[in-house]
Structure formats: C-alpha cells, structure tokens
Specification:
heterodimer, A: 429 residues, mainly alpha, B: 167 residues, 5 helices
C-alpha cells in the first residue's frame, strides 16, 4: 500500500472511531514512518521540536490573556461601551451584541471566551426587553465568530505556523475588514428583524455615567491598539505582544476594574491548562503529520486533483470553501487549521490566492463551522449559556448565515478586502 | 481497591495540572523578561528564549498526559454518540487501547530520543538536551498508565464520570 494512503487512511479511520485527534495524527505518522522504513524516534523528535518554536509561545499567552479578560470584567465594560454607542438604535441591544463582540474580538481573540463572558450578561438582558431567547442566543454565537477573525487571534498564529511562516502582522491586519464586515452584516440582519418584530430602542445613560463608561471602554480597547499596532509596526513580535496582553489584562482586572484578586490569577492559570496543553500537543503531533504529508507530496497530489475537476480557479475556490465548511461542521477550529493548511494552501495558491487571504478565508469557514450542528463548539457553549436547545437555536441561526456566507464569498473572490490593510500599513506585496 | 487507584491517579492528574499551570506562569515571566530586556536593557536574553521553548514542550506534554485521564482531548464524537450503549463502550474502549499503544511506543521512542540527545546541550542553558527530553518518556508512561486504567474500567463496566468523555 502506498505510504500516503496509509497516512491519510489510518488517520481518517482513527478519527471516525473517536480516537482523540492529536493521537490520530501521531499514530498515523508512526505507522507510516515504520512502513517507509524510518525509525519511529523520528516522529517523537518531530512532536517535541514541533512544540519548541518561539513564535508559538504567543498561543498559550493569548489564550491566557483571553481568560483573564473574560474573568476580569473586560466583557462587561465593553458591553456598556457598545450600549453607549448603538443602544439608541431600533433593536439596540442586538446591535450592542454585535459591536461588543467586535470589540471583545479585538482584544481577546477567542469566540468561546466572548460567548461565555458576554453571553451571561447580554442574553438575559435581551430576553428581559422582549427579544426572542433563541434569537438572542443565536446572535451572540454568530457575533462571537468575529473573535477569531479580528486580531489578535491565536488561531491566526496557529495558521501562520502551519503555513510555514506567513507574517502574523499581515494576517492580523488582513482580518480587520472581513471581521468588521461580519459585524456589520449581522447588524443589518438584526435591524431588519428588529423592525419586523418591534424590538425596542434603549435610552442613553446620563452624561456623567456615559463618560465613566467611555473611559473604562477605551482602557479595555487600548489593549488592541498596543497589541496589533505593536506587531504591525514592527515594534515587537507577536510573542512579546502576547506577554504584553497578559500583563495589560491582569493590570486592568486587578488595579483598574478591581474585579480580580491575585488568587483569581491562579484559578485562571489552572483553568487554561486544559485548552493550552491540548492545543500544544495537537500542534506537536501535527508537525510530525505535516512533515510526512510534505515528504509524500500529498499537497501536490490534492492540488492536481482539484485542478483536474476543471472550471478554473473559481470552481477550485468554491469547492475548497465547500469542503472547509463541511469539515468545520464536524470538527473544531484548531485541529482543522493544522490538518487542512498543509493540504489546501497549495490548492489556494494554485488558484491565485495569497497565503494571507487563504488564512482569513480558512478562519471565516471555520468560524461558520463554530455556529453549525452537529459539532459546533460555539453553538454548544451558546446554548448552554442561553438555556436554549441546539435545534431551536439552529433555526434562529439560519437567518444569520447569509451575512456570514456573503463575507466569506467576498473575501474569497475580492482580494482587496484582505490585502488592503497589510499593503497600506506593512507595504507587503 | 478501585477507589484507592482512582484517588492516586486523580491526585497524579491534579499534580500534573498544577505543574502545567506553574509552567504557563513561568512562561509568561520568561517572555515578559525577554521583552523587558530587549526594550529597556537593550540586550537579548537567550536563556529566557530557550527556557520558554523547554517550557512549551513540557506544557504540551504534561498537560496532554493529564488530559488523557479526564478525556480532555478533542475528538470527533459524531459517530460514537449515535451508537447504542454497547457499541459506544466498545469503540471507547478501543480508543483507550489505541492511545495506550501509542503512548507505549512514544515511551520507547522517547527513551531512544533521550539517549540520542544526551551529547548536545542547549546553547545558553548548560544542561544536555537529553535531560529536557526526559519529559517525553515520563509523560508517555503516564499517558499509557491512564489510558490502560480507563480501558480496563470500560471492559469491566466500571467507567464513571471521573473518566468521562468530552467532545
């Protein structure tokens, strides 16, 4: 049997029978290495070295910063700030939901941290004002996907590594326009629904309170300016920026908002162990798997197969998006980034897409996947927070998918949306 | 007997979780120091960079070993969840067995890796790379232990919430 078939076949078989994905990657790599006559120690070495990369250090630290922000009162300040800005519009609280997710995504980079920290504030607030519970929950989930597109985003760093060193600064800048477009698309959808259902406008708080809310909100959003600005202008690396994000969010929570105590920092650390270590181990195993994929020229074979279907770049890119959406419906974001990037990036490049644009398109697809059954972590967490069922929330979610799909298609076929900011600020070609 | 084994292994998992949390804290300090040294002291700190790399692999492996005990690794449960109870039990037991077998191979290859890297040292931390690589066989042995116990519990029909599944 050809080694490439052993590699992909054993991996898929193990995934389908429910073996943890990081182990599937490791086992498929060892079996394939043995079939090729390599000693299995090569795989163990790749796993360890795969985790020992300095740019990767940014991943655990951004995850940690997101957890500190979620616990340290940042979410509530951002909700209040968004309330001040868009509350007085028709369906104001729905708008607040979209804007807060945009801002929270702009400081934390995690969709799940957004749902679990802003959801418990916003969903009850919305239902109390007469919004449909399923609508409120579905909107919270859909809006949270801005978190993985709008920088900083640990998923972009995972992609940058999997793609073999795409500029994190360029990726971060490329995410702004598509991320904001998702927010705007969801706001337009919400507005139309709000007018149809007669959802209320909110009163603006008194001036004194508004000033206080604005100061608190700006302090939270300043993290985004420091992190993304610092990276984009080459002042510091993504790794250093992630440490700045941890320290800044800890200072905000401990001394400015005073919602954190020192012992809470320890609990945040312990809570983040599971997600950080499982993601790190996954990246290590994927390094071994990716090495064999490249060695066996699997990406070139897949690219040739896509090209053989015919129809040119447009069909290739549409099929690629379809495949990613289907995979996103059944698998989580981080595993899909490490598995699909080495295989599909060459397909995208062959269709004329830049690696930076592919990174954003990949994340947009996987972001949509977070909101869909049967396996959508965003959907699951949102339903748990909102107290709704998967079925009823999915029915409400259907109304938000067109906006998300429109942004996906625009980002796929109009490179301006992803390339304008990196070109403007970093002068990338 | 079963309760004692559960307590010991759960205690081991908690210790590993605590150790990983400490390492993540240290990692934050290393990177912060690195940034501080570069901006304020205008000097590169290679030791903190290398210490960060070592911490990264230790965080990944120790945390991942702990996660085997409580089923914390991401897996595709789409098919398994739709099976009748017996089918679920068989596939989950098989999955534990596969993880145990992989961990055993990782343990053996880890020993080889330690041996092969004993001669080289980190460039700014004067310890052999083999020492820092010892984490591979150690954590692989723990993964093997955890998954073997989970496998035995399943086939004996003793699995409960402490070895529960997560998506």
């Amino acid at each position: 049997m050809p080694p490439a078939v052993i590699l992909i076949g054993s991996f898929l078989l193990l995934v389908l029978i429910g073996v943890p994905i990081s182990f599937c990657l490791g086992i498929a790599s060892i079996v394939t290495a043995l079939s090729m006559g390599f000693p299995p120690v090569v795989v163990a070495h790749r796993v360890v070295v795969g985790m020992q990369s300095f740019p990767l250090v940014a991943i655990p630290l951004f995850i940690l910063a997101g957890s500190i922000m979620a616990r340290g009162g940042v979410a509530r300040r951002i909700v209040d700030f968004a309330y001040l800005l868009v509350g007085p519009f028709r369906g104001g609280l729905a708008m607040v939901n979209c804007i807060q997710a945009m801002f929270f995504g702009g400081v934390s980079g995690s969709a799940l941290a957004d749902i679990s920290s802003a959801g418990p504030i916003l969903i009850p607030m919305m239902t109390q004002k007469g919004y449909d519970k399923e609508f409120s929950t579905a909107l919270t989930i859909a809006a949270s996907t801005q978190g993985i597109i709008i920088p900083p985003s640990q998923n972009m760093i995972i992609y940058a590594m999997a793609a073999g060193g795409v500029s994190v600064g360029a990726l971060f800048l490329a995410g702004y326009i598509p991320g904001i477009m998702i927010g705007v698309g969801l706001m337009i959808t919400s507005y139309v629904i709000a007018v149809k259902r007669g959802y209320p406008r909110e009163k603006r708080p008194p001036l004194r309170q508004s000033v206080r809310i604005m100061v608190d909100g700006v302090l939270a959003l300043f993290a985004a300016v420091v992190i993304v600005g610092g990276i984009a202008f080459g002042i510091f690396t993504a790794t250093e920026a992630s440490a700045v994000a941890v320290i800044y969010s800890a200072i905000l929570g401990l001394f400015v908002y005073r919602e954190l105590h020192l012992r809470d920092l320890w609990f945040v650390l312990v809570d983040s162990v599971k997600i950080i270590s499982t993601v790190m181990f996954l990246i290590g195993s994927a390094a071994a798997f990716g090495w064999l994929l490249a060695l066996l020229e699997v990406p070139a074979t897949v690219t040739a197969a896509f090209a053989a279907i015919g129809g040119g770049p447009i069909v290739m890119l549409l099929l690629m998006n379809l495949l990613l959406i289907l995979l996103g419906m059944i698998m989580d974001v981080a595993p899909l980034i490490v598995i699909t990037t080495p295989i599909l990036l060459p397909v995208a490049i062959a269709a004329g897409m830049s690696p930076v644009t592919f990174g954003i398109v990949l994340l947009l697809n996987l972001g949509i996947g977070l909101t869909t059954p049967p396996v959508g972590t965003g959907l699951f967490v949102g339903c748990a927070v909102g107290g709704t069922t998967i079925e009823s929330t999915t029915r409400a979610m259907v109304k938000f998918w067109p906006a998300m799909l429109a942004v996906l298609l625009l980002s796929t076929f109009v490179p301006w949306f992803t390339e304008f900011l990196p070109k403007l600020i970093m002068h990338t070609s | 007997m079963r309760i004692i084994i559960d307590r010991i292994l759960s205690g081991l998992e908690k210790t590993m979780q605590t150790l990983t949390a400490v390492l993540i804290g240290l990692l934050t300090l290393f990177v912060s120091w690195e940034a501080f040294a570069r901006f304020v002291l205008h000097s590169g700190q290679f030791w903190s960079q290398e210490a960060s790399l070592i911490a990264m692999s230790w965080i990944g492996l120790i945390g991942a070993a702990g996660a085997v005990w409580f089923g914390g690794h991401i897996s595709l449960t789409l098919i398994v969840d739709r099976l009748p109870a017996l089918g679920k039990r068989i596939l989950r037991a098989f999955s534990d067995l596969v993880v145990a077998a992989f961990s055993f191979v990782l343990f053996l290859t880890g020993l080889t890796l330690v041996d092969a890297t004993m001669d080289g040292t980190w460039s700014s931390i004067p310890i052999p790379i083999g020492y820092t690589n010892m984490i591979v066989p150690v954590t692989a042995a723990v993964m093997c232990l955890f998954s073997t116990v989970r496998f035995l519990r399943r086939i004996l029909g003793l699995d409960d919430a402490s070895a529960g599944e997560e998506g």
